Amino acid sequence: MTRGIRGATTVSENEEKQMIENTKILIEDMVKKNHIKPSDISHVFISVTKDLNAGFPAKGLRELEGWTFVPVMCMAEIEVPGSLPKCIRVMMVVNTDESQLNIQHVFHNEAVKLRPDLIKKKGE
Questions:
Q1: Predicted local distance difference test score (pLDDT) of residue 31
Q2: pLDDT, tens digit (0-9, with 9 covering 90-100), for 3-58
Q3: DSSP string, 31-45
Q4: 8 A C-beta contact, residue 85 and residue 51
Q5: How far is Cα 56 from Cα 84, in angstroms, rounded to an integer?
Q6: What CATH number has the domain spanning 2-118?
Q7: 102-116 burial, b if ≥16 CB within 10 A, otherwise e?
Q8: Could you read off the pLDDT of 46-90 as tens digits, one per residue?
Q9: In DSSP terms, which residues pair with 48 in a beta bridge?
Q10: Coil vs helix vs strand at 97
Q11: Sign of dihedral through CA atoms 27, 5, 37, 46?
């Protein structure tokens, strides 16, 4: 079975180093919370809002051990008036036996506002 795992983060500036670092931290947290190995990952889509163009956020993933062959693609998020600025969104598709209910979606920084209904508290 494949499952999608959502993740998102924000940065304070349109700066390549910050985009790469925040994305890397987010991905590491998604992997940890869902007990994923790189070989379990089918592919990863990363979108950025139009105000982020200083670099490719996926660059940080290449620094992670075992991620050499994981297909990753960056793209532009659709522009919706009033949407969260400076936001990096991740859709990670993984092979897992976990039910959708047990998937841990991860939101960092200002992105916690996006889907508070998906954020699980400790012990849930």
A1: 95
A2: 999 999 999 999 999 999 999 999 999 999 999 999 999 999 999 999 999 999 99
A3: HHHHT--GGGEEEEE
A4: yes
A5: 19
A6: 3.30.1330.40
A7: ebbbbbbbbbeebee
A8: 999 999 999 999 998 988 999 999 999 999 999 999 999 999 999
A9: 76, 88
A10: coil
A11: negative
How many CB atoms are located within 10 Å of the residue 15 CB? 14
Q: Is the pLDDT of residue 122 over 70?
A: no
Q: Under the phi-then-psi rule, with left for phi > 0, alpha for psi from -120 to 50, and beta for the rest, what region is 105?
A: beta
Tokens of 74: 């960056």
What was the pLDDT predicted at 28?
95
Closest Cα to residue 48, out of 71, 18, 78, 93? 78
Token pair 């936001």 is found at 87
Q: How far, in Å, are 1, 107, 115 from residue 123 at the CA level?
A: 25, 17, 19
Cβ within 8 Å of residue 81, ≥6 positions away? none
